[in-house]
Automatic annotation (TrEMBL):
PROSITE patterns reported for this sequence: HTH_LYSR
SUPFAM superfamilies: Periplasmic binding protein-like II (SSF53850), Winged helix' DNA-binding domain (SSF46785)
Family recorded in the similarity comment: Belongs to the LysR transcriptional regulatory family.
Annotated protein name in UniProt: LysR family transcriptional regulator
InterPro entries (UniProt xref): LysR-type_TF_proteobact-type, LysR_HTH_N, LysR_subst-bd, WH-like_DNA-bd_sf, WH_DNA-bd_sf
Gene3D superfamilies: Periplasmic binding protein-like II, Winged helix-like DNA-binding domain superfamily/Winged helix DNA-binding domain
Pfam families registered for this protein in UniProt: HTH_1, LysR_substrate
Alphabetical UniProt keywords: DNA-binding, Transcription, Transcription regulation
Ranges where the HTH lysR-type domain occurs: 14-71
Keyword set includes Translocase: no
Amino acid sequence: MTNSYTRHRYQQLPSQQSIRIFESAARHLNFTLAAEELSITQSGVSKQIKGLERFLNTSLFIRKGQKIDLTDTGRLFYTGCIEALDCLQQTINTIQGQAGQLRLQAPPTFASRWLIPRMELLHKNLPELSLHIETTWLRTIQDYIQTEPNQLVIHACINYPFNNLRAELLREESLFVVVSPDYLARNGQIKSAQDLVNHTLLHTRLDGHIHWEAWANAMQLHDLDTTAGYEFETLDMALSAAENGLGVLVCDFLFAFEALTNGRLVIPFRMPIVTGLRYVLLSQPNRHYQPLQQSYLNWLYQQIKQDNQEMEQYLINLSFDTSERRKGIL
């Protein structure tokens, strides 16, 4: 535990101004550069350093002609100044919301296929927000998640059962079978769920084969071996495999939408819309970051609503019944 000197009212501390001037001079090892950085005179820097040395009763710099270096005591004091100033700055950042900076953790496919293509639009809509995206390759749907005050986490799960974080539902997956026209040309048409029994299935590795299992159960397709086929580390890789004709994939419509509209993938037959995982936005309640987090959440909702409308119209054009899914993604 750090010792507290509050009862002494910090009477043995030098002034904040002299500490800042010393930190700059020690970092540059040059009084002139320190003076320019702090917009004071070089003689002002020298005066503050001399006063600080008198206060500490020790030399902080070794003066060798036009060059200076830190003494051993100076290096020790410089380390302490950096730690103290960093601690103070971190506290101020927390109070002020870190000047619009948020960290966002997201599944890799969500980041690559949805977030990154919208970064320029996000900057135009929320120019005050600086968003740092991190991907989470090894996170499973059952994980207990912890966050920092300025951090948001987009988490795919069946249901987030823990109450340690605030959870906002972003969307639910709508699962479809997708396949490339090239694969169909080489392996024959797929006209019903039953036709899938003899085809190569594509999977993501981390959470097992939950999408194929959920879809097969919803379709009551009990003779489909959902353990067979190729496995890939991420959904993005499985989608690329499907686009290149390696097999048939069940995935969230959102991530396949661009490939469907471009003709790289097709939905081979009309099928019910099966609900998959839920995407939730997790955050740590913090009043200093709440306005920024809420602004980003509102932006996410707006973008997802727009996507929903485009995807619903696409499915209507294919004669799909979307009426039962309008409360979810569609």
